[in-house]
Amino acid sequence: MTIKQISIFIENKSGTLLKVLNVLKEANIQIIASTISDTVEYGIYRIICDKPTEASNLLKQNGISSITNDVFAIELDDTPGQAATAIQNFSEAGINISYMYSFLVGCKGILIMRTNDTDKTQEIIKLKKMKTYDLA
Amino acid sequence: MDDKSPYLHPEFETLSREDIQKLQLQRLQATVKHCMNSPFYKKRFEECGLKPEDIKTLDDLRKIPFTTKQDLRDTYPFGIASVPLRQCVRLHSSSGTTGNPTVILHTQKDLDEWANQVARNLWMVGLRPDDVFQNSSGYGMFTGGLGFQYGAEKLGMLTVPAAAGNSLRQIKFIKDFGTTAIHAVPSYVTRLYEVMQEQGVDPRRDTKLKVLAIGAEPHSEEQRKRIENMMGVKAYNSFGMSEMCGPGVGFECKEQNGLHFWEDYYIVEIVDPETLEPVPEGEIGELVLTTLNREAMPLLRYRTRDLTRVLGHSCPCGRNHVRLDRMRGRSDDMMVLRGVNIFPIQIEKILMQFPELANNYLITLTTDEDNDNMTVEVELEDMFTDDYARLQRLNKDVTRALKDEILLTPHVKLVAKGTLPVSEGKAVRVVDKRKVYQ
Prior knowledge:
Largest sheet of chain B: 9 strands, mixed
Shape of chain A: globular
CATH architecture of the largest domain in chain A: 2-Layer Sandwich
CATH topology of the largest domain in chain B: Rossmann fold
Number of strands of chain B: 21
CATH topology of the largest domain in chain A: VC0802-like
Distance between the termini of chain B: 41 Å
CATH class of the largest domain in chain B: Alpha Beta
Low-confidence stretches of chain B: none
Number of helices of chain B: 12
Mean pLDDT of chain A: 92
Distance between the termini of chain A: 12 Å
Strand order of the largest sheet of chain B: 4-3-5-6-7-8-9-14-13
Strand content of chain A: 35-45%
CATH class of the largest domain in chain A: Alpha Beta
Oligomer: heterodimer
Order of helices and strands of chain A: EHEEHEHEEH
Structural class of chain B: alpha/beta
Radius of gyration of chain B: 23 Å
């Protein structure tokens, strides 16, 4: 139901993102999805990759602060209106989404999201028989 | 006193060098003798086998050990006093929160003499009893408030204790009361001008201002000129420190060529902060002051930690009291920002209370549009959240905690671990990019 996401503290100056990417590149780690928010001084670079544990260790060895979390990964058909339907389920249950981003795997859309109530979110996913995505 | 006289105390202000030194020796001997009533100085003299009678010439001053801020802290609160507490009528205390604060005691005579010095300064720059003096300086423990209040009253001016802040009200006072002189820290004058502009008030057209007294915050010649151009009046540099009394210790005359330090009140020494030996005349060193006219708490050879140099002893204004350059920096790590004294250790203490933060930090001081600002960069110990809002909250919490400690709001910037200079040995903790000391 959830997958590992690595969040990295990124200062808003040139070269910091590249340093992170180079560490992952050296270890042949593939980034499946990523997002970075635009902020004045610093932001959080969030990535989903194929080898999260290895990536996290490598970042640490290279002095880069990161945290690994479980985030929800909802699988949707790649057709119009799917996201609206999915989100409506959470909305009706009073769940608030902290952040969300999406990517495509084959012809499936994947919604990565973090909510203010993990237990309730799990409940809704089960109740509404929503499909979730797993890396393996 | 005749309003036309350029001197409020001609008998002291116009003394020749020789007479100044005669008076100084006489007062030094009396001060040293009086200091034997202070448990601190009595012990200190005994420790180095010195007796008051050993001070036969002004040069003998150098036999006396220095007094430091640490001595004031160690004897907190009343251990240096040379009179019983019942003779004291006022206490001022430093804002510093590094260890014990410093306490300065005053007798009624001390307060009178303090007011005399301030009055002398204000008279020197042309203020007379007809003037209206608005003191836009912090009151309370900060000596710039009561110090200027009593001095301006002593001179006979209508004195408005406006205190700092509330610029709209300040401007209303300036207009309604016909304020002719203001005392404030330089950055506050700039602020006042900004608000005047917003309100469509032209200080040249709409006010009767003629004199500004600025001090308690380091500022450059360039900054002074800007302030003068903005407000259309002369701005005079004031030097004071609570350990000596407060404002009044040194002030510029109309020549604006260095601060006259009143040598009937103080003996001025400039020493090398490393060797503690006198520097050749004209070279920059640490200012050391000995009080000559104080009852409650005379201080002998007090290390001010301010760096300056002697500019000369004579002046076209007719005063022969030593002229010192504006302060050029500090021989310790104290920062002076908008009139507030801040030590890096205060910042460090607060930062270390946050487990989310690492040990490395960097304080940068800048002047942005005439305002002094502080940026505190601090490393994150670890990435503890994937939630941006939590990082922002940490940022806010750190800012608030720092504000509570140093009374100013710094700009706090979180940075990734390993990006700041490492804290070993003499890590650079403070970068002062202000134009003041250049």
